[in-house]
Write a structure and sequence with these properties.
- The chain is mainly alpha-helical.
- 56% of the residues lie in helices and 3% in strands.
- The chain is built from 17 helices and 3 strands.
- The protein has a 3-stranded antiparallel β-sheet with strand order 1-2-3.
- The model has no long low-confidence stretch (mean pLDDT 94).
- It binds coenzyme A.
- Coenzyme A binds next to α14.
Amino acid sequence: MAHGAKAFSGGLEGVAVAETVLSRVDGARGRLIVAGHDIEDLAGRVPFEDVAAALWAGGGEPPSRAAVLRALGAARVEAFALLPQLGDALDREDAMDTLRASVAHLVERGRGTAPAWKGAARVAGAVAVFAAAWARRRANVEPVAPDPSTGHAADVLRMLRGSPAPEAEIRALDAYLVTVVDHGLNASTFAARVVASTGSDLVSAVTAAIGALKGPLHGGAPGPVLDMLDSIPDPEHAREWLQGELDLRRRIMGMGHRVYRVRDPRAAVLEAEVERLRRIFQDGNVDGADGIAPRLALARAVEREATALLAVRYPDRALRANVEFYTAVLLEAVAVPRELFSAMFAVARVVGWTAHVDEERRKGRLIRPTSVYVGPVPQADVDPATRAG
Ligand code: COA
């Protein structure tokens, strides 16, 4: 082992580098606690603004729902006014590139003077506006100005489609935002904390986190999950299709997780939300209702078959559905374009990132692990006789 290194863990698996009051991921039992509550008790029951308030309070007294609603609304308005200055940052091929480039235009204000949650809300509101503006421009239509008086989920859907969304869809998106708002020391949150630990600013930390989230092994899976569902003609063909992918040594998107050794609890929460939406749409005879039922049936069949095939191939690993699997189905059901899925993840997770940045600033220490050097060494180290000569 290299000099000074106490332990080596490829991918930092199982290594704790921070204490947090924000969320706890129990990978063995499949349990997620966010701000002191099981995720099942939050998603679809407690509005996103309240969960954001609890996380931003970092264990202290949270701001009121009304204050958070106002701050997010004002932040969306401020970010919308910034759009003309963003130039071609808004027109990147990948929505995550647009998010990174446009968030980089922000400048942190009031650090150390204003309450930290207000700076966090400013960035969170901006991420939602930039994501929606990207989607609108991509569809060759003008971005829609935010309505600061509405809830965040409602306004995100309104900015995407140009008219208010039905209550059932707003609730589904709100439940999604809550479900993915924070998740321990995932790669993007870790990236944000590493940057914050150097004393750098909030915008730099969030920009780094967006870069980490872009990767397909982290936040980039739900788009490909939908591509997969598109490629499988019906539930009867799921096994054959999946087997073909595994034979080509390809990964099944939306399956497997670094921490969970059982089904990701967020998959169950999101599946239940889609089921709820399906019933409401069916009962109300709503447009689009016909699409949800077969999609959900196919997704469930694919999950079942993928779980079985992966169990045979990796008997020791327990590769089960992760959050991204039903994220894909839910976001499609509320008409979010699939190219925007990773960016929607950021719309929610930015609350977690900013809460972690504040926590890191308050009690953190420079995060600086070591590496194990396995490269060449000077000849004198290999043959001490050379040095002596
Ligand atoms: N499909 C097929 N094989 C998979 C797999 C999947 N979804 N997930 C893991 N495996 C395989 C790996 O290739 C590895 O096999 P190998 O030893 O032959 O190389 C083995 O299972 C062990 O994997 P594990 O250690 O559990 O994975 P990890 O912790 O390194 O990676 C993920 C976790 C999430 C990156 C991985 O499961 C994955 O790539 N999933 C698909 C992408 C995805 O859904 N990402 C969203 C995560 S929320």
